[in-house]
Write a structure and sequence with these properties.
Elements lengths: L1 H17 L2 E9 L13 E9 L6 H26 L8 E9 L11 H9 L6 E10 L2 E9 L2 E20 L4 E18 L12 H20 L3 E9 L4 H11 L3 H13 L4 H16 L3 H14 L6 H14 L5
Parallel strand pairs: 2-3, 2-4
Antiparallel strand pairs: 1-8, 4-6, 5-6, 6-7
């Protein structure tokens, strides 16, 4: 057993030694968004619109309650999500709800007199992000199926979501943007006994609450940038200089590491300089110099077109260049 363990450990160390790079975890932030909204006065009101419905039957009352739960969760979640965006770090949020009595099938905007009044009673908010309409129609079902010689159950709950957001600029009395969100969330489960909502599946109200929170995240992604987690390749072997540069990079000293990688490139050759050029691209990405990063990747490709991770990284940098230069 001792010999087998030793050989296994030796093989692991040998394979690790043959890998000329390590993967590192990074966080990055792209400033562009799909929907541009005014900065306003730093005060934002998140508005929930409850739709007026006739409650002549229990089914209508339940439908209204489900829509209301989804709408409430959507707007409360939007406050929480936007608070985590650097773009809204200096923003003060408030939350309010109104009851609408629209009879039209169209999703009409709120009148400016009402919006101005809502702004005044909510800390003079200069911007209102309003969930003007929310509709959910959860359905659930189950059926039996044979798994081998055993009769089992499969159950599901579907939640179609239809909601409409508007961005009201109170200062200039303009609807600066809107966002229609449509999706269907699905939960499924298998069991040896009948599958039911509230048992193996989330209950109706829990499912629509989750759907409302998901709708908030989708809207937030349109108007606010967030920190993202990802991984990158860092080449760290081949010479003492590469090892020393890695130590600096892991401490966050990308400029100091870049000085060493530039010296590796000047020393000549192809194998090590291509890795150093790749690392130079990473250093420039971390410093926010995306076009320079792409130039270093092109140099790494000229030195070694088959360098591992090169093509994937070029796609990432091209995406970040676009994300940080395109205006919504």
């Amino acid at each position: 057993m001792g010999r087998i363990r030793f050989c296994g450990l030796f093989l692991l160390l040998f394979v690790s030694a043959c890998i000329p790079y390590r993967q590192i975890d990074i966080e990055y932030y792209d400033s562009s968004t799909k929907i541009s909204i005014p900065t306003g006065n730093g005060k934002v009101l998140i508005l929930t619109n409850y739709q007026g419905k006739s409650h002549s039957s229990g089914g209508e009352t339940l439908a209204w309650a489900l829509d209301s739960v989804a709408a409430t969760e959507a707007t409360l979640s939007l406050v929480k999500v936007l608070n985590s965006s650097p773009a809204f770090s200096q923003t003060s949020f408030s939350h309010y709800a109104v009851y609408r009595k629209d009879t039209s099938n169209m999703i009409l905007p709120l009148p400016w007199t009402q919006l101005k009044n809502l702004s005044e009673i909510n800390d003079s908010a200069g911007l209102i992000l309003s969930l003007d309409y929310m509709n959910v129609k959860p359905t659930a079902g189950s059926y039996t199926l044979w798994q081998g010689s055993v009769n089992a159950y499969h159950g599901y709950i579907y939640v179609p979501v239809y909601c409409y957001w508007r961005v009201y600029d109170i200062t200039n009395q303009k609807i600066t943007n809107s966002f229609l969100h449509r999706d269907t969330l699905v939960w499924e489960a298998d069991d040896w006994r009948e599958v039911k909502p509230g048992d193996q599946l989330p209950g109706y109200f829990a499912a629509v609450a989750y759907s409302g929170a998901d709708a908030a995240e989708k809207f937030a992604a349109q108007i606010a940038p967030f920190w993202e987690n990802s991984t990158r390749i860092l080449y760290n072997s081949g010479s003492k200089q590469m090892v020393e540069a890695e130590k600096l990079a892991l401490k966050g000293d990308w400029r100091g590491a870049a000085e060493i990688w530039q010296q590796v490139i000047k020393n000549g050759g192809k194998a090590l300089p291509s890795r150093a050029a790749f690392n130079m691209a990473l250093a420039n990405e971390m410093l926010g110099n995306f076009n320079v990063s792409l130039e270093w990747l092109m140099q790494a490709k000229r030195l070694n077109p088959n360098l591992e991770g090169l093509n994937d990284y070029m796609e990432i940098i091209n995406y970040r260049i676009k994300a940080n230069s395109t205006k919504p």
